[in-house]
Amino acid sequence: MRLSHSLIPTLKETPAEAQIASHRLMLRAGLVRQTSAGIYAWLPLGYRVLRKIERIVREEQDAAGAQECLMPTIQPAELWRESGRYDDYGKEMLRITDRHSRELLYGPTNEEMITDLMRQSVKSYRELPQILYHIQWKFRDEVRPRFGVMRGREFLMKDAYSFDLDYAGAVVSYRKMMLAYMRTFQRMGLKAIPMEAESGPIGGDLSHEFIILAPTGESQVYFDAAFEEIDYLSSGAGGFSHESADDLERFFTTMTTHYAATDDKHDPAAWEKVAPTRRREGRGIEVGHIFYFGTKYSKSMGFAVATADGRAVHPEMGSYGIGVSRLVGAVIEASHDEAGIIWPDSIAPFRAAILNLKRGDAACDRISEQLYGALGREALYDDREERAGVKFADADLMGHPWQVVVGPRGAANGTVELKRRAGGERQEVSVESALARLA
Ligand code: 5CA
């Protein structure tokens, strides 16, 4: 993309309404703009990050055997009357009436709708287990939307739903999703820790929140350093596979043996037993939440399948959420400095920015175009008529993992400066070796 013709409105000043780093930086780097309270438009730079996060989430859901589908944002009230949640949900639910006076709502989650879709078609034990997921916008009329996309009213969620014949099957699905989550967050450069949680309005018996550390997190968390040392992506010895029940068991035992708790579940006596050098404590942000709730919806909504011996059983269910749009803010909370965002390579909007320091200089223009041509869609070419200082500051603010600085002195000798955003290291290299590093 050429920055001169892009809607990436960076700001020098900090917007007054932004209280936390990620909100400030998302506005300043031109990722989003608020259109109503708690509702955001995703501008090109922000949308590229959102899509990359979505892609990682999707790949890991697919790898765990979940099927992607897409349910609508607008749902009929009747479904929610069947489960009894229409009234329970209260003012957080955005209720809509259409021209025929039919009651609709903008979905805050999809347990009812997926149960309805399954009960229409799945009749036999032979068709289970199944896990379905979608990545779709949700609406919750939060009393106090705040911190930008971290607590929005409209937000993008990945929600998955598992259906099993019995409790033992449901436990396997729950563990598979938990492993998929740990892999997903690790791929985004995040250290997430699963913590046992209350299940709240979703209902149910077993629930874990996935928390990442950041000073602005909403709750105080305590955990064993063991969580920081596990490589969930490793396929070698000690690694975990979704395919193996033994691996899933060993994985779940690991996740639930080491101490981890939010302040409302914190147990000082158990905490005392963790070696002092291994105690980790800080503020945490919830980026995902999973629930096992048995037959709560299958029973209330009359979804049953025939077993091998001709009985009818209500499938055991779980639901599994990831805050896709919240993750954009959460990653920034976990990875930024005074100058701006520091994107992990896996979700950076662009891999590199090309900074042409002297537009109109034949060598600078030629080398910049050459780099841009070779790097293609993964490069943002700063071809604006701006001072070098402005280009440096904007590139740091936007946080691309690499900057390729094309200045007149180097360009005359066929060299550029390659800067790594994370550590700040700079290196004078030939155009060819810059390309080799970034390709
Ligand atoms: N039905 C279940 C799981 S599919 C569910 O709705 N779970 S949830 O309420 O915990 O939401 C799942 C994730 O969505 C949360 O962990 C959080 O990361 C994200 N989320 C929830 N509310 C908001 C919000 N107001 N703004 C941004 N993200 C949110």
At the fold tier of CATH, the topology name of the largest domain is BirA Bifunctional Protein, domain 2
Major sheet size, sense and barrel closure: 9 strands, mixed
What ligands does this structure carry?
5'-O-(N-(L-cysteinyl)-sulfamoyl)adenosine
Termini gap:
17 Å
Rounded to the nearest angstrom, the radius of gyration is 24 Å
Secondary-structure-derived class: alpha+beta
- Percentage beta strand: 25-35%
Oligomeric composition of the shown chains: single chain
Reading off the top of the CATH hierarchy, the class of the largest domain is best stated as Alpha Beta
Q: What is the total domain count? A: 2
* CATH homolog superfamily of the largest domain: Bira Bifunctional Protein, Domain 2
- Estimated helix fraction: 25-40%
Q: How many strands in all?
A: 23
Number of helices: 14
Q: Indicate the overall shape.
A: globular
Which residues form runs of ≥5 with pLDDT under 50? none
Question: Could you please describe the fold and organization of this structure?
Answer:
There is one protein chain. This protein is an alpha+beta fold and 439 residues long. It folds into two domains: 3-341, Bira Bifunctional Protein, Domain 2 (BirA Bifunctional Protein, domain 2); 350-438, Rossmann fold (3-Layer(aba) Sandwich), CATH 3.40.50. It is built from 14 helices and 23 strands. It has helices at residues 21-28, 44-63, 77-83, 85-88, 111-121, 167-187, 245-257, 268-272, 296-300, 324-334, 362-375, 388-398, 408-412, 431-438; strands spanning 32-36, 39-42, 67-68, 74-76, 94-97, 103-106, 130-139, 154-164, 192-196, 206-213, 219-224, 260-262, 279-294, 305-306, 312-313, 316-323, 336-337, 340-341, 352-356, 379-382, 402-406, 415-420, 426-430. Strands 3, 7, 8, 9, 10, 11, 12, 13 and 16 form a nine-stranded mixed β-sheet that branches. A five-stranded mixed β-sheet has the order 20-19-21-22-23, sandwiched between helices. Helix 2 (44-63) packs across helix 10. It binds 5'-O-(N-(L-cysteinyl)-sulfamoyl)adenosine.
